[in-house]
Amino acid sequence: MDKTDKLARYALAQKQIEALASGENDAVALMANTAALLKDSLQFFWVGFYRVVGDELVLGPFQGPVACIRIKKGRGVCGHCWGKGATVIVDDVDAFPGHIACSSLSRSEIVVPLKDRSGAVRALIDIDSTLMADFDQTDADALEHIANTLSDRIF
Ligand code: SME
Q: Where in the chain are the domains?
């Protein structure tokens, strides 16, 4: 997918998520629809949410193959994103120390935090691709916008 096409799809997804989130604040419903929308419109391999529950991440609504349920703090790309409190892009998951392989088909990954009003990370959007280096700043900007839209409604 070229950059223009990707930007157009993200712009439409952003509008649809704003419409879905308008007047709705149920976290499961909004995460579920966002995962469906992103999987469908951007054609990602796996799109889902992990929620901060105590001292670990627990799988939330997702679209794609079955995934690992619990991730300890600091473990994997998701745990790294949680600790850092900022978007993490991994071009080659095999080169990321401690990457948790939920599917052997996954080659690259982006993880974006959802923060509450105090700035604490409360959940993550995790997206996997079967292509190497499939994510860049275009994805980070668009997904951070989506993450902020959701966070404003649910946290
Ligand atoms: N690869 C992630 C685990 C979650 S799956 O990608 C769905 C990680 O290393 O944290």
A: 3-154
Distance in angstroms (rounded) separating the CA atoms of residues 151 and 70: 21
Please state the separation of Cα 42 from the chain's center in Å.
13
CATH code of the domain occupying 3-154: 3.30.450.40
State how far the alpha carbon of 148 is from the alpha carbons of 54, 66, 94, 108, in Å.
22, 26, 29, 23
Q: pLDDT-derived band of residue 127, with 50, 70 and 90 as boundaries? A: very high
Distance of CA 144 to the CA centre of its chain: 9
- How far is the centre of ligand 1, averaged over its atoms, from the C-alpha of 110 (Å)? 9
| Cβ-contact 115, 93 below 8 angstroms | no
How many whole angstroms from 99 Cα to the centroid of ligand 1? 7
Structure confidence by residue, pLDDT tens digits, 58-91: 999 999 999 999 999 899 999 999 999 999 999 9
Query: What contacts 136, CB < 8 A, 6 or more positions away?
Result: 89
Task: Please give the structure tokens belonging to residue 56.
Answer: 């670990």
- Index of the ligand 1 atom closest to the CA of residue 101: 1
- The token pair at 88 is 């993490």
